[in-house]
Amino acid sequence: MEYVVPSKRIVSKEDLDEFLKSDAYKEYIGYIERLNDSVKNLKNDAQVEISKNVQTILTILDTLSRWVKEIPPVENSKSRFGNPAFRTFYEKVKNSIPELFKDLVPEPAIIEVGKYFYESFGNEKRIDYGTGHEANFMAWLLCLEKLNVLTEDDDKAVVLRVFTKYIKLMRQLQFDYWLEPAGSHGVWGLDDYHFLPFLFGSAQLLNHKHIKPKSIHDSETVEVFSEQYMYLACIHFINTVKTTASLRWHSPMLDDISACKTWIKVNEGMIKMYKAEVLAKLPIMQHFMFGSLIHFEGGHAQSDDLEDDCGHIHEVKPKVVGEDGVFALGQEYPDCCGIPVPSAIAAAALKSKPRPLPFD
User: Fold this and answer.
1) Distance CA 45, CA 228 (A)
2) pTM of the entire predicted model
3) Could you give the residue ranges of the DSSP H alpha helices within the chain?
4) Residue 290: helix, strand or coil by DSSP?
């Protein structure tokens, strides 16, 4: 097999519709659903077999966590937006891919799987992060399976050890570098950054005898069990960052979901929502990449060079400008462009700092 640098092929709604009918889509969502099934009724610390390759992945993520500590945020106290030190971290990861993967991935394949990996930590230009970057991490794991680095026997460990460590690393990046939420839906989203911890997390709680969907409103339950269940860890994170009012005000969608009687309903709804609100949304999926391992011949091959300062590829279409039939090129901007959304983490951090006295 000839490995290639993954590229973006989804620019228009027509491209996206084609992808949603493709084998690449079926492979990706099938992998997510399989991982979901593997952790039903399992706590984060459940006994799972850790293969040699899974341990290597965990070591790689630990290395990145150490690098975050070694690359502190630069002085940026007057801004609630992303800290420029993130770019230093990002470049270090990008330039270290061959060394990081030397004991994990066949050398010819590093060129392909490496890009999925470093693009799973956010956007270097915008210093932001969202569900599209999270999807890149899952695509990376799917590529590792296609290379026989991971197998179906690793599924439990992939979710309960690898994915949870990735989320922990991402929270570290979000807190230290104040990553902005990419294309945030604000109060109408589950979380400023992630989706899959809610999906996998609801599977973990499927038949729990005492913790119910409405238990997210019990701060003691959330506090005690947040280390054991991803769903409650997400609620704990939101409560930590968005300290004003209640879930009803800053996270009404989560509040509505808490009215479900069973976790089965929540989990089924999460899978449907992931398909509709992540995989079927152009502003997110225009960033998804395809190569020889996750292969999609539809759409239109794009180069990263076509990205503008907002970090997106804008669809270009001919536009009639007069009755004489003269055409000019016009741009159609996706919904994700516009005013950058500052980090709520940054806002909370700045709010907690003591205000200097006028004569200090």
Assistant:
1) 7
2) 0.87
3) 13-19, 23-38, 52-70, 85-95, 97-101, 110-118, 131-146, 155-157, 164-177, 196-204, 219-225, 230-241, 247-250, 252-257, 263-277, 282-285, 344-352
4) strand
Q: Give the three-state DSSP class for 319.
A: strand
Amino acid present at 337:
C
E strand or H helix that includes residue 331: strand 327-332
Structure tokens at 313: 């590829």
Residue type, 144: L
Return the pLDDT at 359.
32
Mean pLDDT of the 334-354 span: 56
CB 28 within 8 A of CB 139: yes
Expressed in percent and rounded to 5, the helix, strand and coil fractions of the chain are 55, 5, 40
Q: What is the set of domains in the chain, with CATH numbers?
A: 7-290 (1.20.120.1150)
- Cα–Cα distance for residue pair 210/193, rounded to 1 Å: 28
Instruction: Say which residue the tokens 């899974």 belong to.
Output: 54
CA torsion 270→272→275→278, rounded to 10°?
-40
Mean pLDDT of 212-239: 95
Residues in the chain, how many?
360
What's the pLDDT tens digit per position in 34-74?
Answer: 999 999 999 999 999 999 999 999 999 999 999 999 999 99
Question: How far apart, in whole angstroms, are the C-alpha atoms of residue 66 and residue 68?
Answer: 5
* Nearest of 312, 310, 307, 305 to residue 284 by alpha carbon: 312
User: How far is CA 287 from its chain centroid?
Assistant: 12
End-to-end CA distance of the chain: 65
Is 330 within 8 Å of 337 (Cβ atoms)?
Answer: no
Residue 305 CA: distances (Å) to CA of 6, 155, 284 = 14, 36, 18
